[in-house]
Amino acid sequence: MKLPALEKLGGKLEEPAHLVVWEDAGRIEVIAVAGESFQDAFPLPLHVQAAAAEAEMILDTTTAARLEIEKLPKDFWEGLEEIDYSETLRVSFLGRPGQKYLHLYRAVRKGDGEDLAPLKALALTEVELLKVTQWMREQALFEHQSGDVLMKILTRLPCR
Questions:
Q1: Which residues fall within 8 angstroms of residue 141, CB to CB, at 6 or more apart?
Q2: I need a surface site. Which of 6, 60, 76, 93 has the fewest CB within 10 A?
Q3: pTM of the full predicted structure?
């Protein structure tokens, strides 16, 4: 299903762009710029920023600014769904593998784990949860105090 905002962006781009995005709670966040490899989306290329401004669209790169693309797990990029929005815009939507990392990351980052619906909808297995939490720990994404938040979130998630 094509998103109208991205169709509008595709109509404004004068140079080719391939964005890797995820949609969460009705907002689109750019995670990476694709080419021969995945590159950091922060900052976005100037021609993409200009087209977004012209389309009256805000392209969020908050998560990309906090994470190091080269340190994301290999399975993060599995299951991408590519859609061509125009001759100049190709968008790859994160698949379930990438979403599991970002949803748990966001829940811990918010600090309260209040809205766990996206994580619950993924119905993660114990092995998947272990893999994501291990990545978070190995990359030292949070301060020590966030371990309590993570544990509270994990105890509230059903596992299959």
A1: 66, 67, 105, 108
A2: 60
A3: 0.87
